[in-house]
Specification:
By secondary structure, the chain is mainly β. The protein is built from no helices and eleven strands. It is globular and about 45 Å long.
Length: 114
């Protein structure tokens, strides 16, 4: 059974920074990709950034130049460095892992005050 545990969320003022981390544990034969999604109440979950097994990264336009996704394959961890945060970045952020199955973390709240 694979478990994903996120950490690093919190409250920050606009313009500030946060770093989210996701630790994967359990039996993971081969990870195809990992990603960060976010969701606000009443809206669909949105892909924020992803990273493939080859290290290729992608970002939603609204975070390009501000967020950086990274992954430590040896430790099965993934991070999201979020800089120049804006109130519209406020959401619950979820860790996502695609292997033979899809796995989600429990989510971590990020709140950006204006």
């Amino acid at each position: 059974q694979v478990q994903l545990v996120e950490s690093g969320g919190g409250l920050v003022q606009a313009g500030g920074s946060l770093r989210l981390s996701c630790a994967a544990s359990g039996s993971i034969a081969s990870i195809n990709a990992m990603a960060w999604y976010r969701q606000v109440p009443g809206k669909q979950r949105e892909l924020v950034a992803d990273i493939t097994s080859g290290g290729h990264t992608g970002y939603v336009d609204s975070v390009k130049g501000r967020f950086t996704i990274s992954r430590d394959k040896a430790k099965n961890t993934m991070s999201l460095q979020m800089n120049s945060l804006k109130p519209e970045d406020t959401a619950v952020y979820y860790c996502y892992l695609a292997a033979a199955s899809i796995y989600w973390g429990q989510g971590t709240q990020v709140t950006v005050s204006s």
